[in-house]
Amino acid sequence: xxxxxxxxxxxxxxxxxxxxxxxxxxxxxxxxxxxxxxxxxxxxxxxxxxxxxxxxxxxxxxxxxxxxxxxxxxxxxxxxxxxxxxxxxxxxxxxxxxxxxxxxxxxxxxxxxxxxxxxxxxxxxxxxxxxxxxxxxxx
Length: 139
What we know:
Layout lengths: L13 H27 L4 H11 L6 E3 H8 L3 H13 L3 E5 L7 E5 L1 H16 L5 H4 L5
Antiparallel strand pairs: 1-3, 2-3
Helix pairs in contact: 2-5, 3-4
Pfam family, one: MarR_2
Protein name: DNA-binding transcriptional regulator, MarR family
GO molecular function, one term: DNA binding
């Protein structure tokens, strides 16, 4: 019979629980603030995150639906639907991949770029307690 505990995993102590609680609290405050910023701009937080991940993919200016699904931790079909909603809103466009016809690249439109930069600037202003994001000079 199993006790429910996994072998090799120590139970957290009081200080660790306090640290986890503080982290979750700060994370939730940030997410709520992000929801407010995005909503005021007329987009959802998922749309903002998609725009951020398209532009924030290392080494290029686009991403595939599969890559976006991974970054969003979402199902590929749900991510494809989100891309379609962003495309209908004029924020992104799909382009066939020249080297792999099975892949479709998602690119920001000019409107999507403007929206992303505006929202990212507002988010960056609130990253103060997250110094690890930009280093000490980014806040």
